[in-house]
Specification:
- The chain is mostly beta strands and 282 residues long.
- It has a 6-stranded mixed β-sheet, with no helix packed on it. The protein has a 6-stranded mixed β-sheet with strand order 12-14-16-18-20-19, with no helix packed on it. A 5-stranded mixed β-sheet has the order 1-2-3-5-7, with no helix packed on it.
- It has 2 domains: 198 residues, Leucine-rich repeat, LRR (right-handed beta-alpha superhelix), CATH 3.80.10.10; 72 residues.
- 0% of the residues lie in helices and 38% in strands.
- Strand 2 and strand 3 form a beta hairpin.
- It is built from no helices and 27 strands.
Amino acid sequence: MDDSSPYYSSLDGVLFDKSHTTLVLCPEGKAGSYTIPNSVTNIGDSAFRDCTSLTNITIGSSVASIGSYAFYSCTNLTAITVDTDNTAYCSVDGVLFNKNQTTLIQYPGGKAGSDYTIPNSVTNIGSYAFDKCTNLTSVTIPNSVTSIGSGAFSYCTKLTVVYFQGNAPRLGGSSVFYSDSNATVYFLPGTAGWDTTFGGRPTAVWEPRVQTSDASFGVLTNQFGFNISWASGMAVAVDACTDPANPVWEPLQTNTLTGDSLYFSDPQWTNHPGRFYRLRWP
């Protein structure tokens, strides 16, 4: 940008207003890490849109507003870091939130990891917050979430399961799960507002499951046991019988999960020629 321009300026190839308080546009081909100058108070609409070569963005303490689609389609962005002194925004593990963590604004498109659990403080998932996060296969949404913005999970092409821990939230349009053709929405027994589809994706009851493929399954310390996966706070009962064709189910244990899994063991397993188990919720 020519220095004589009365309205705009450039710094390191990035377009700003003249006073460097608004970041207007970052070139799509800009690569690597980028730190927003401390003078910036506003990140404009679509400012980093389609910057597919950026890997990290650092937001300073002065940024007070971030425009719509600011980080849209930054598919290789692994982290957004916010200065801890910023009073409007924060980041947790590279994910961008408002300061009090009630709104999840942007999950970086290139963030590593296939599973993500949204913090319990979040009440709103912003529009396009997870757009094109192609590493994600599973997302868990807490019962605090009451609304999900338009396109929030669009083009998450590897997403297969979305677990909801509460009632069905409001949707900001029909494109929340756009192009997520492999995803199924799971909801807990006793929660409300669910139909056969949600946001265009099929739904199913989220039931407790025995994990047969991890190291906990089998005989450990002379007891047969296994991990049960479900939602934190849910109560699960384990029953046993010796003949599944004519079952007489014996209740063995009822526990409330304090995390996303619970270990069950049966010290009496050797007292029976065969032992069959079932899970149920009281």
